[in-house]
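Reply to dn_fold:

You asked what the input looked like. This is it:
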Amino acid sequence: MFNVNSGLVKLWFGAVMTGTYKYSDVPNLSNLREQVKVKVEEMGYDTENENAA
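and this is what came back:
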């Protein structure tokens, strides 16, 4: 349903990358979370260890 160019994916990508939200806050809606993961991991964001200090 969603792809990396979808508006909602871009919105959540921006929110995660600016620190407004964490990747784990992205809703599990259709394939939204998976598409956001693709984009944030391209930028070096570690979705598996986002809470590690």
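The radius of gyration is 10 Å.
Hope that clears it up.
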